[in-house]
Amino acid sequence: MGLINTEAIVLRTYKLAEADKIVVCLTRQTGVVRGVARGARRLKSKFGASLEPFTLIALVYYEKEGRELVSLQQVEILRSYFSLAQSTEIVHAMEYLSELVLEFTPPQEPNDKLFRMVRACAEALAEVPEALPALVRYFEVWTLRLAGFLPNSRGCAGCSRRFEDGENVYLSGDNGLRCRACAGGTGIALAGEAYAQLRAIQKVGPVEFSRAVRSVRVAVWQELAQVTQVLIARALEREPRGQATFT
Ligand SMILES: [Zn+2]
Question: I need a surface site. Which of 43, 70, 94, 141 has the fewest CB within 10 A?
Fold first, then answer.
């Protein structure tokens, strides 16, 4: 309660009344927070351009007991991504990624690993925007993993054998990854190349990852999407609204 000072990433905003905005952000200290930015839609607002999606901000907000919405007091831009807003595809992707964060994160539950992952992905997208399809997969895999919905990808859920690099693996109905023999012709196939990327995503940071995958074919990301998006739909028990664009 009282004044909270934290680093935050703006996820989305909504219009409120005539001049205000509701701002949803992922904060480092207190997780997902919803707040009111008074006067944010006026031309000479103290919030300026600081409430654009994925802007990294130093946020001071006031929290009153029993109120769901906090009150944004001060916002300072630490890193903005204006250049990303030029691409409709990237803007749509960021809406989808914001939706994932909101769906998988209970309100006001801090998660430092998630915060650092989202911040690093925004940075990677700014640096290597052409890696968008790969980064969306990266983000999905890590969101699933941090929320406890990513199956063990090292070995077979049936025979416990460690998968080899480049091996074809299969996602079964019970969310286990299995080898060809254990899958017995069932499940969603992930061919060797896509499986290798699923492993790579879990080993390196997003900037390094985006630089390394420049030559990977789009089809590989589409194949990986079949697995990540089934896992997401099973975890949420529905398909996220923004998902269709990124298969
Ligand atoms: Zn097996």
Answer: 43
Cα–chain center distance at 57 = 18
65-74 pLDDT, tens digit each: 888 899 999 9
CA 189 to ligand 1 center in whole angstroms: 14
**CA 176 to ligand 1 center in whole angstroms:** 10
Element at 89 (helix H, strand E): helix 88-104
| CATH T-level topology, domain 2-80 | OB fold (Dihydrolipoamide Acetyltransferase, E2P) (2.40.50)
C-alpha 229/C-alpha 144 separation (Å) is 10
Listed as ranges, residues in the chain with pLDDT below 70 are 243-247
Report the distance separating Cα 156 and Cα 179, nearest Å.
6
Rounded to the nearest angstrom, the gap between the alpha carbon of residue 147 and the centroid of all alpha carbons in its chain is: 11
Query: DSSP readout, 143-195?
Result: HHHHTT-PPP-SB-TTT-PBPPTT--EEE-TTS-EE-HHHHTT-SEEE-HHHH
